[in-house]
Amino acid sequence: MAKTRKNLLLRILGITLAAIITIIVILTATVYGIWFNEINTVASFKKLVDRNDENKAGAVYKMDVKGGFYFDKYLEQGGASSDSELISFITENITKGLIPMNIKESDIGCASFTAIAENGDKLFARNYDFTKTNVCITTCDPGNGRHKSFSTVDLTFVGMDPDKDVEGLMNSITCLAAPFTPLDGINDAGLSCGIYMTYQGGEDTVATDQKDPDKDNITSTTMLRLVLDYAETVDEAVELIQKYNLHDSAQTSFHYMIADATGKSAVLEWVPEDGNEQTDTDGSARKLVVHYNTGDDYLGEREANVDFQWVTNFILQPDYYICDENKGGFDRYNEIYDRLSPTDGVVKDEMAAMDILRAIGRRTWKPGEGVTVHSAIYNLTQKTVLWIANETFDDKSTYFTYSLKTGELKTLA
Known about the structure:
By secondary structure, this protein is of the alpha+beta class. 26% of the residues lie in helices and 25% in strands. It has helices at 2-34, 36-44, 71-76, 83-93, 169-174, 220-230, 234-241, 330-340, 350-359, 362-365, and strands at residues 46-49, 60-66, 111-117, 122-130, 135-141, 149-154, 184-187, 192-197, 216-219, 244-247, 254-259, 265-271, 287-292, 310-311, 346-347, 371-379, 384-389, 399-403, 409-411. The strands form three sheets. The protein has a nine-stranded mixed β-sheet with strand order 1-2-5-6-7-8-11-12-13. Strands 3, 4, 14, 15, 16, 17, 18 and 19 form an eight-stranded mixed β-sheet that branches. Helix 6 (220-230) packs across helix 7 (234-241). It is globular, with a radius of gyration of 24 Å. The model is unreliable at 16-34 and 297-302 (pLDDT under 50).
């Protein structure tokens, strides 16, 4: 009898254990099925460069984003007309409402220019100026007809503390919002883009906030994501953007630069119809104006017959400003022109283009007034990237290269 009872208990225990294991397997499979892409993306999150607080240098991370990260769904629902709407979408879809997301305000200084290497390669150069912050090199392979891309994300935008390392599972999950907040990048068609502050609206900067009821809505960084994912040329990018009301992120005003592998580029600005800084106080009254490198209106007082284009932090629309003193980054703008104009925008190679970014880096140009967080040369012909953080230009081991063709990220040294 005792032996029979023991066997019965062992059988019950075995059945119970098998049931528990089955439930665990089912739950694990369900979780993995729901968050398959997210789990693989979080697993790829990795630190590449340590922080250097003495040099006001944040850490560098990388993340390979798997799947479409719901961007198609974001566009299908009409986009978002504010950062809060974007946050709600990300929270609901990426974390299924379990983890709150955040997008913080940020001052995006920066400069960009296009150039042609002596071998004919088309280049797009970009400095990201801010204060010390952690950044994430974010590669995306969304599939479903969308382009592969490389972009740089300031992790302060998604709520990460710039004075701390990004550690722990919860912070890594929060960084899943990174694809929605690119600041610059390139896709596998050789199309590149960047974002730059314009300080429109006087002392109290006024964000662009268009309200055409017949258009869907999009925010600054998701507009860049739209371009990287769906456009192959400048013309295609402009056509896409024209379909949306723009709502500048972080309660700040911006303009944008786009370039493609043909050598065509454009600066996109949102300004009032009269184009005057004194009347530019209503973000809903602004209209899109596109300045192409094939025209001469974007050059202002500069020579018009050049092939390259460049931008810093002031509106390029002619007669917008009362005086040059109101133009943010005008000194860096002139420096770029002075370095490129003798050769009409031809540089020896990517490193020569990087030398121009080095010359206007904030630690060098105006020490104490912010820092250059990262510098990038996007080769639009080869679909490659030369990238460095925190102006460590003399240390080849701190340079990263990336190929859209092979998906390989490696150090230069």
